[in-house]
Amino acid sequence: MTTRTVRKLRALSPGECLDLLEPGGVGRVGVMSAEGIVMLPVNYAIAAKTVVFRTAPDTLLAAQANGPASFEADRIDEASREGWSVLVQGRVHVVSGEREVQSLERETRLEPWADGARDVWVRITPVRITGRRLGP
């Protein structure tokens, strides 16, 4: 006889969502391209309640500055069938001020995982933050 664990799906507040994102990690950025919506993985950090990441100047993410974007991150434990997912919807823009870039470098210590020059800092300013958690 197996014992079934009851898991509840619950909505998270924007504050709970930001708390889950705070350690940084890997997420996916969704932007519109000529071919439709594209989802791209990035390693990210949270700074002043915004999502920041670095990219190369010749990438789609750098080219989509000042447009709408979505960011999604999650943590899933398949063995226990538990986890969470957070969606940030907002506007993306390239961080261009030298002082702001230096501040982000100090504050986040964000290092791109991919090799090559990733000198363009990008920020997603949230308009809406939603999330869900599945657990006991």
List keywords for this structure.
7 strands, 136 residues, 17% helix, single chain, alpha+beta, Pnp Oxidase, Chain A
Question: Explain this structure to me?
Answer:
- The protein is α+β, with helices and mostly antiparallel strands.
- It has a single domain, classed as Electron Transport, Fmn-binding Protein, Chain A (Pnp Oxidase, Chain A).
- It is 17% helix and 54% strand.
- Strands 2-3-4-7-6-5 form a six-stranded antiparallel beta barrel.
- Strand 5 and strand 6 form a beta hairpin.
- The longest helix has 11 residues.
- The relative contact order is 0.29.
- The model has no long low-confidence stretch (mean pLDDT 92).
Poorly predicted tracts of residues: none
In terms of DSSP E residues, the strand content is over 45%
Distance between the termini: 20 Å
What order do the strands of the largest sheet run in, or round the barrel if closed? 2-3-4-7-6-5
According to CATH, what is the topology? Pnp Oxidase, Chain A
CATH class value = Mainly Beta
Question: What's the architecture, going by CATH?
Answer: Roll
Number of helices: 3
Percent in helix? 10-25%
Give me the Rg, rounded.
16 Å
Going by CATH, the homologous superfamily would be Electron Transport, Fmn-binding Protein, Chain A
Average residue pLDDT: 92
N-to-C order of helices and strands: EHEEEHEEHE
Largest sheet data: 6 strands, antiparallel, barrel
Shape: elongated
Which structural category do the helix and sheet elements fall into?
A: alpha+beta
- How many domains? 1
Total beta strand runs: 7
